[in-house]
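Sequence in, structure out. Go.
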Amino acid sequence: MAALSTGAAAVAKPCCPSRFMAFMGRNRASKVLFLTVKPSFCVRCASSDQIQKAPHSVCGEVDADSVASSIKNHLEFTPLFSHDNVGPGKAFFATAQSVRDLLIYNWNATYDAYEKVNVKQAYYLSMEFLQGRALLNAIGNLELTGEYAEALKKLGHNLETVASQEIDAALGNGGLGRLASCFLDSLATLNYPAWGYGLRYKYGLFKQKITKDGQEEVAENWLDIGNPWEIVRNDVFYPVKFFGKVVVGSEGKSHWVGGEDIVAVAHDVPIPGYRTKTTINLRLWSTIVHSEQFDLHAFNAGEHGKACKAQEDAEKICFVLYPGDSSDEGKILRLKQQYTLCSASLQDIVARFERRSGGNVHWDKFPEKVAVQMNDTHPTLCIPELMRILVDLKGVSWEVAWQITQRTVAYTNHTVLPEALEKWSYALMQRLLPRHVEIIERIEEQFIDEIISEYGTTQPEVLERKLATMRILENFELPPSVANLITKPADVVDEKAKDGDAKNQDTEKHKGDDAAKKQKPAKQGPPKMVRMANLCVVGGHAVNGVAEIHSDIVKNEVFNDFYQLWPKKFTNKTNGVTPRRWILFCNPKLSDVITRWIGTDEWVLRAEKLAELRKFADNEDLHKEWLATKRSNKVKVASLIKERTGYTVNPDAMFDIQVKRIHEYKRQLLNILGIVYRYKKMKEMSPAERNAKFAPRVCIFGGKAFATYVQAKRIVKFITDVGATINHDTDIGDLLKVIFIPDYNVSVAELLIPASELSQHISTAGMEASGTSNMKFSMNGCILIGTLDGANVEIREEVGEDNFFLFGARAHEIVDLRKERAEGKFVPDERFEEVKNYIRSGAFGPNSYDELMGSLEGNEGFGRADYFLVGKDFPSYIECQEKVDEAYRDQKRWTKMSILNTAGSYKFSSDRTIHEYATDIWNIHPVEIK
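Output:
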């Protein structure tokens, strides 16, 4: 290896085993770089024995007195508020800034190491990063929880109270964003050189309120009083252009000129690893314009709106996550968001590559130093944008630039839902990003040539089908040279015959027809679209699904033609979640129990150690501790429910929880219909009968329905109406409660998940890519009821079939079941009809639920015909729920099932997932900071 630009000698040697090298029987070679640098740190492999001998704190000697002094210093000298009357809110900001000081020290050391060593670095681009509160996670990763608790006590505060003042960062909505945040935690913990890139949304998705009319959306206020974790980087900014036109210069190069120019400004958030100094970066972009675009003349003339328009147009790009796109303006704003993320991030990545290369930039080495991962299709514009930068700005030839792009970029698919496989209007994209459309058209042209080269022209019908499914541009005519290749000989004969007949027609009649044609408006075909998912597959070197069943669907159905063309490009990377946030920090009592029984806390970094709980699954002493921990967590949730909803629940009842984005395929409707059936049966029984048959339950829902998703909002309204009826029914009392917790977020999840006993993951089979909340629940000893969908399949394999409540149709049956419905052959179960009739009887108030019930009826039509098979799976579901009641009444059996769920959850650590990405897709290696 050549000497690095620092002048230091570098030697590559075989790496000591990474902590996950042996995971699941893997043995893979890695590398480590030994480098002599300034004394503040050194770079070397993160080995397993180093993990076991971690120091008390990665920040050196930090005690409660020094922490208290730091907090007091921030109260005095970095005040966001007056330092008088310091309450918990002010104490939180000062405490967070104190922690940030420690993070910045490690963050700078990490950054300096990456600069000097110039290792390959991964960049994770995502529209969402659902971080949750950061304080307890940060001090936990720094192993300073005790010191901060003591310091705050000295200052007259309680750590838990202070931490509760933090508002969740409104940078995401659901599993996509939470996964990205778990990945950042694992990247830092495993010492992988990586950064995250996202947008800094001022108002988030929305804050959810539940009123008598259902869900109401209001703007998030997480930035109203500032964000103590971010560092505004006014020195890091990049131009981003929209609209304009493309002109070709005298030198033959394309130039994108004119249009609307904004500036993306970096806001950095340090992300600490656990028991390591490695602190990586989440860089978020906000959008502004240069001050010269403020029209001072217009402002002084009283035209204030005109004067500020450029600034307002720029700032609104980062106002809201997923703005409504039913209008052209909404679509343009969404596309602006996606392009801003891609352009600013890639300009930053390219600038870093050039800087680290010194004065000797070799663009063909770019993929050896950079890996870009697109988290779903939102960052697809990375592909044409990287091409634009390389070809237009850096002078790289098209052929070389295309090779660089394909070797650099990889794509994670998160959905099989057609509406989520993004397509953009060609006309809109051509207007907003004219140069990128030119690039996409050229990519399409050479891809068509590749398809023809691969499949030949001897079977025109095969070639035609391949082109129809694989093209990037949809509803476009083929170039004449290609169209001629798939024209059937019979078609040519028919056309000649038609031409001959036409020539023999009466001349005057022919003229009359021409006149009629001129008067008749031309028939418009389907809109021309750009298929973003196809562009991802064509432009990247790897495509991965996020669960085994999902990856099989991706290969065999969604992208089957691509898989046949490039089988090595496709792989599976089953999702995972960080055990630090999702066991150690959110469930400290359970963490203590686990550590005590397996004799080590190594499970926090080596999740496979959790499997050692299996040998104690029948131990009565463990059962007692396990149950005591669970009840303690349930008491906390009972208080949360009282605070948020006003309802009182019994912590000795089963806590049955479904918390996730509200969507028809996730089937919250199936859950609430099952509850209605349960309630109806209870009402038909005597008190003695119902107490004998049903285990007491608190059924808890949480999640947001997208603001314009009418059917999802109807489901929220129906759940709250059912709850209002049941919760006030004195005959039923504590035997059944239905709770909808408003504004579900990470902080709420950190309370609910440790308290959960049954969790519902009941999506229509084949429609959930993976899910990650199922993993979090299982880690915390919760038993799942679900279909064989997403990661449920693998969870069931790991925890054992007897410790998972399974129901419902299988993924391979879904197509035939929908066909059966369309043909009018489906006969609904009488219990399903009974429930619908009961709802329509007015049992839950005067509101009409016709639209909701109507979606479950009929055999065809938009919004009808029970597309998500609620009626089909309903009998299986309620019969499975009877098995749940039976198991819960046997608390010894239930507790054993709970322990075995935690023991079997180790595969679903995001550490395992990230190690697979790093090894199989990114080709990056750990770098430990000392």
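Check: Residues 1-56, 491-497 have pLDDT under 50 and may be disordered. The radius of gyration is 30 Å.
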